[in-house]
Automatic annotation (TrEMBL):
One of its GO terms (molecular function) is NAD binding. It comes from Cinchona calisaya. It catalyses: sn-glycerol 3-phosphate + NAD(+) = dihydroxyacetone phosphate + NADH + H(+). One of its GO terms (biological process) is glycerol-3-phosphate catabolic process. Keywords: Cytoplasm, NAD, Oxidoreductase. This is Glycerol-3-phosphate dehydrogenase [NAD(+)]. The lineage of its organism: Eukaryota, Viridiplantae, Streptophyta, Embryophyta, Tracheophyta. Residues 146-248 form the Glycerol-3-phosphate dehydrogenase NAD-dependent N-terminal domain.
Amino acid sequence: MVGTTDGMSNNNVYLNGGANGSSDEKVDELRHLFGKADGDPLRIVGVGAGAWGSVFAAMLQDAYGNLREKVQIRIWRRAGKAVDRSTAEHLFEVINSREDVLRRLIRRCAYLKYVEGRLGDRTLYADEILKDGFCLNMIDTPLCPMKVVTNLQEAVWDADIVINGLPSTETHEVFEEIRRYWKERLTVPVIISLAKGIDAELEPEPRIITPTQMINRATGVPIENILYLGGPNIASEIYNKEYANARICGSDKWRKPVARFLRQPHFIVWDNGDLVTHEVMGGLKNVYAIGAGMVAALTNESATSKSVYFAHCTSEMIFITHLLAEEPEKLAGPLLADTYVTLLKGRNAWYGHKLAKGELSLDMGDSIKGKGMIQGVSAVKAFYELLSQSRLNLLNPNENKHVAPVELCPILRTLHKILILREQSCDAILQALRDETMNDPRERIEIAQSHAFYRPTLLGQ
């Protein structure tokens, strides 16, 4: 993937996004932008403690936690979420398999409670174990100890930077509450959203609502102070220092210094000005990842069947990007990279696989123990509703008639019937691939490339 960061004369920055500036220098740059005085630390708060939100906060704690006079990092999660007995037993096994973790807990006088949790003599809670570095959605990957706050007002009222680690389905509600705590503040915070999901708004015009737009509406924070960070990343692998890259998207004022602040030797952060489009692409790939998991399970991991599915789903994604973006070819690399890693190891593909195997059911909902929110389910509903609107009708040259865009997306239609309407079983995804009337995926791409399908109103532009 090619970075979009402009070349800079600063000797501390490499063109590929890597930085050799010290932690002090990167913190001081942000402190200067926020107008922080000596003795007034930069306050960073993670809101939401799923896998990626927890890892993101832990990475910042690892990188900057030693600069306590300059920066303070904490994370908010709801109190009261009990850890069940089987998870407590597994957590105990993880602790005892890692000598560094075991020694750390013993030094902190925190080991005994995990023994009691393993024996069933004590109930552990998610916020309690997070303080010791254990995310409930990612027990197998111990993190560093963190400052955890369960009172939302206490967590955010004086925050300079807020990291949105919530699912898109919870973002608006929580940030509406946050707005009440910001009524008296004089400074405007910067918000970095990690959420990959969308909602659809059908009136007065059909359009997509992204998490950054939800935050803007809920809080009144100007959109130039709201950024999106996304990329082809698996949270546990990033914390274990597997090489990864991401893009932070948003206004010039904030995205470049924040990108430099977030960069680490194993985590390269590029920057881009196209906020909403990249955000929507992060939600789109989750739709098709669920179907990929189903195909893998139903065909016993057939490489041939998975490649057939990949050809069809990528052609639909390319078609949809031509509706959403004026220059969709610029999105091809980031979208395919994010789709690839999600199909390989993401929770949405995992969810589709478990559904097709009968190990999960739709009645269990889309918030799954040990995985968190499966955001692809709500994204299927949103994209289907949006692309079904007759106001968006376009010419299908093969049939010489106008149709809703969703009619040219058979995989999306099938996933909607399986996941939302529940009219068909997971087997329907294979039937859709084997439908003799289905066009060559190349033709769908040619239709998209040869017709002016771009609908700027879909992104509120």
